[in-house]
Specification:
The chain is α/β, with parallel strands linked by helices. It contains 20 helices and 26 strands. The protein has three domains: 272 residues, Alpha-Beta Complex (Quinone Oxidoreductase, Chain A, domain 1); 140 residues, Rossmann fold (3-Layer(aba) Sandwich), CATH 3.40.50; 117 residues, NAD(P)-binding Rossmann-like Domain (Rossmann fold, 3-Layer(aba) Sandwich).
């Protein structure tokens, strides 16, 4: 696409217009949507001067995210806002944002220039402190923002990623949620004990015979500390020999029962463990010890003889803390640490649960466009009207995929859920799915989907269930059937770059996710719609357009017919439609 020819749009893109003396933003003063803004409106504030170590940026487009609504619901209790007085220091949401540089402080004049465009990698760290954009730092629900050293020179360098001039504003803003999708398929799980970490080995009532350590850390760096509870015989001797040879600390406790297990683990002096090795655990033991897993921990279940089929598992931690649950039915501990596959099985069978929401649509689109995607692909949702939007939006991709593969979209019928679940399994001839991606925010759905996995299948718990959400799972399948549970939250700079490259090269088009657009004042209505799942796709706010109301793309036919005429197939957002939109409304 060539640069804009309209003089107004050329000036806008090059950021040559004078900056205003004031601008608008949406402050959140506490929990609840009623605390967003003042009298249901944004507020106007003075535009501060740009300091020497800052740049002044203009927010061009921001996507509304379900994570924004979690901040609205939790207020000051949100984990990213601990200790913040929101009445005195309100939060400005908006982390799916694209921006343009409009002023540059003296310290950065050799690095940044007015008119340059960037994305923000939202998870920002400065001196080890999380300073996420749209959380602790002012976000995209503001027309302008001062960006300082925490963003420009943080722990990972600069958290701004350059955007090509030809890339659309909505297209760029939605790179962030799309990067979260990509990250869930590219994460590398550990295949051994954490180097320099802490490991806990506990013998449970299902343990029998002699266990061997094997090489859970190979020839690499050993853990710093190993704590054993009830471990004896050849395994304890092997650990003692390894500790002497490799120089790690080994603390041993005798056999205990479930009543005093927690006290013994607490007495070890270790608050959290990077690796938990559970030898024949009972469900009660698993439930007692799971909270001892550190962020990014691996829980290795060695034998499932004593586990119930309804062990309570914190599926919120699998998602948010990247807890990996693995296992083996043998006696060699290292066997549980085989590589955890995260990419969809090429030519395999994939199930997308809760597929018709905004993030679910992205997972489905990615699978439809994958070069070596699944051969059997089933998407489910409870609402037929939402599923109809998905199938209409991706009609061309679905048709192309169906020429070679089996693609189905299922919703519950009059026969109820038993028939619905039977239809889901029937699509695989009863064999089960190699991959299940769960977007439905329900512990019951997660638990119910386990039986639909094939042997060695992988479940991606993508739904952002809060930490502490317990699902009654047959967790023993990680040992007996080689099943793996994975989960990710957010994305990194490398994921953003990968997604931006895919968008700008035409590999994936984030614009297909857009379902509604709005000017700045419509942000509150848009967030309310996200809370109530009113939109089967992404809502994009254009902050520099103040008063255009929240409008579904299908309704542009009546309000902005010239914009509607430039929508793509099945009323999809395009760069050309966006150009016309800005031309008419800026």
């Amino acid at each position: 696409m060539a640069l804009y020819s309209d003089p107004k749009l050329v000036a806008y893109r090059q950021a040559v217009n004078p900056v205003p003396a004031s601008y608008w933003l949406w402050p959140l003063y506490g929990a609840g949507l009623e605390n967003l803004g003042v009298n249901d409106q944004p507020i106007e504030v003075t535009l501060p001067a740009c300091g020497p170590d800052q740049i002044l940026v203009r927010h061009d487009a921001v996507g509304l995210c379900f994570s924004d609504t979690k901040v609205i619901k939790a207020g000051e209790t949100h984990p990213r806002l601990a200790g913040r007085d929101m009445k005195a220091e309100p939060v400005v949401l908006g982390h799916e944002v694209t921006l343009t540089v409009v002023q540059v402080g003296d310290d950065w004049k050799d690095r940044f220039h007015p008119g340059e465009r960037f994305l923000v990698q939202a998870d920002i760290y400065k001196d080890g402190v999380g300073m996420a954009y749209g959380y602790r730092l002012q976000g995209g629900l503001s027309q302008y923002n001062l960006v300082g050293p925490e963003v420009l020179d943080g722990d990972d360098g600069c958290y701004l990623l350059p955007v090509q001039q030809e890339t659309g504003y909505a297209q760029a803003a939605l790179t962030e949620p799309w990067a979260c999708i990509l990250a869930s398929y590219t994460i590398d799980y550990r295949v051994g004990w954490k180097p320099g970490g802490a490991a806990l080995i506990v013998t449970g009532p299902g343990a029998s015979g002699e266990y061997e350590l094997g090489t859970p850390y190979g020839g690499g760096q050993p853990p710093a500390r190993v704590v054993t509870v009830g471990v004896s015989g050849a395994l304890q001797q092997e650990l003692e020999a390894q500790a002497a040879a490799r120089g790690f600390s080994l603390v041993a406790f005798g056999a205990v029962n479930e009543d005093n297990l927690a006290d013994v683990v607490a007495a070890s002096g270790q608050d959290a463990f990077d690796d938990l090795v559970l030898l024949g655990p009972s469900s009660a033991q698993y439930e007692l010890l799971e909270h001892s897993a550190a962020k990014g921990a691996v829980i290795n279940v060695v034998g499932a003889q004593a586990l119930d089929k309804s062990t309570k598992v914190d599926v919120g931690r699998i998602h948010y803390d990247a807890i990996s649950v693995v296992g083996t039915d043998g006696k060699l501990i290292a066997d549980g640490y085989r590589a955890v596959r995260t990419e969809l099985t090429a030519g395999g069978k994939a199930l997308f649960v809760g597929a018709a929401g905004p993030m679910g649509q992205m997972h489905v689109q990615r699978a439809l466009q994958a070069e070596n995607g699944p051969a059997i692909m089933v998407s489910t949702d409870l609402a037929k009207e939402r599923m109809d939007v998905l199938t209409e939006k991706y009609a061309a991709l679905i048709e192309a995929k169906r020429k070679a593969d089996d693609v189905q979209f299922l919703v519950p019928g009059e026969d109820g859920f038993p028939a619905f679940n039977a239809a889901i399994m029937a699509a695989t001839n009863g064999e089960g799915y190699d991959d299940i991606v769960v977007m439905a925010p329900s512990a019951g759905v997660v638990a119910g989907s386990v039986s639909q996995l094939a042997n060695n299948g992988v479940m991606n718990i993508f739904a952002g269930l809060p930490r502490g959400t317990m699902a009654a799972l047959d967790i023993g399948v990680v040992a007996t059937r080689g099943i793996r549970f994975t989960g990710t939250s957010g994305s990194g700079i490398s994921d953003m770059r990968l997604m931006l490259d895919a968008a700008e090269s035409g590999g994936l088009d984030p614009n297909l996710s857009v379902v509604a657009v709005s000017g700045f004042r419509g942000a509150k209505e848009g967030l309310d719609g996200v809370v109530h799942q009113a939109f089967p796709g992404k809502v994009v706010i254009f902050p520099q357009i103040l008063d255009f109301p929240l409008t579904r793309l299908s309704d542009l036919k009546n309000t902005l017919p010239n914009v509607y005429a430039k929508l793509g197939p099945n009323e999809s957002w395009t760069i050309q439609a966006e150009e016309q939109f800005l031309k008419e409304l800026l």
